[in-house]
Amino acid sequence: MESALRAEFDAVIPPHDDGLDATALAEAMRDADALVPTVIDRLAAPLFAAASRCSIVANYGVGVNHIAFDAARAAGVVVTNTPDVLTDDTADLTMLLMLAALRRSGEGERELRAGRWAGWRPTHLLGRRLSGRTLGIVGYGRIGRAVARRARDGFGMRVLVWSRSRPADLGPQDGVEFVDSLEALLPRVDVLSLHCPATPATHHLIAAAQLAQLRPDAILVNAARGDVVDEEALVAALEAGQLGGAALDVYEHEPSVHPGLRAREDVVLLPHQGSGTVESRVAMGARALENLRDYFAGRPPRDRVV
Ligand code: 8YV
After folding, report:
1. Which residues line ligand 1 (CB under 6 A)?
2. Alpha helix segments (H runs only) across the chain
C-alpha cells in the first residue's frame, strides 16, 4: 500500500506499526487532507471538533467503532471503510476458533511444547465434534453470512440466525433459520458466534443474563468486537460452569486480555487476527486507496459510512 499511496498522494507514513496518540492524530488531521487510520487509532469526538484540514477518514478495516462518527458527520468529515475484501479470511478464522475450542487444539499444543505429552492414549484430550452441531449467528451481514455458508456447506451444521432486524433478502436459499429474539436463540445453540458491529446498542449484548441462557456445554465465539461481550461476566460464567468454553479474537480492552481468560484451558485466545492474511491486508489497502481516489476526484467513494 505504501508505494501505491506515495505514487498518488503526498503521503506521510509513520515509520512504525503502532497507532498514533491523540496529539499525533490531531496534528495529522490539522496538516493533512485525508487520514487512513487503523483500529488502534482512536478518533474521539474532540479531534473532529477541532478545526482541521482533514475532510476524509479512509479507515483501513471494516469496523469503525474507534471513530466518533457522529462527530465526524457534524464536522462534515467523510468516513469510509474496507468491507468485502476481508470477509472470507475473517469467516475462515471464525471456523478455526470453533474448531480450536471444540477440539482443544490450544491445550494440545501447549502440552506438547511444554514437553508434557506422554504419547497417544485412547482418552487423551478428547474434544467434541463440530460437524452436525447447531450454530447461532448474531449479526447477519457479510461476515455472518460467510460463516453461515461455511458452517452449513462445509460442516453440515444447522444454522440459526438472529440480528436486530430481519434481513429483507433472507430466504430459503440462505439455508438458515431466522430466530425472532436473542433470548430464543441462546438456549438452542451449541456454538454462538458474534458478527455484529460494535455500536452503543450492541455494547455488552452478551452479558450475565445472556450467558446464563446458553447451554452448559455451549461455546462462545467472538471475532467481531470485544465490547459486544461483557468480559467480566464471561469470566464469571466460565468459572461457574455456565458454558463450555470460549474462543476469542477480540477483547474489551485490547491489547489487554482479562487474566481470568488467560488462566483458563477451555478458552482459545487469538490476538485480533481476523483479517490477518497477506491477501486481505493488501486488498484492504487497495480499497482504502480507491476510496481516497474517488473522493478527491469528486466521485462518491464506494464505501462511505458517514
Ligand atoms: C482489521 C478488523 O485488522 O476490519 C476490521 O474491522 O477488525 C480487522 O480485520 C483492523 O480493523 C484494521 O484496522
Report:
1. 38-39, 60-63, 86, 274-275
2. 2-8, 22-31, 45-49, 69-74, 87-103, 105-113, 142-149, 155, 182-185, 208-211, 231-239, 259-262, 278-296
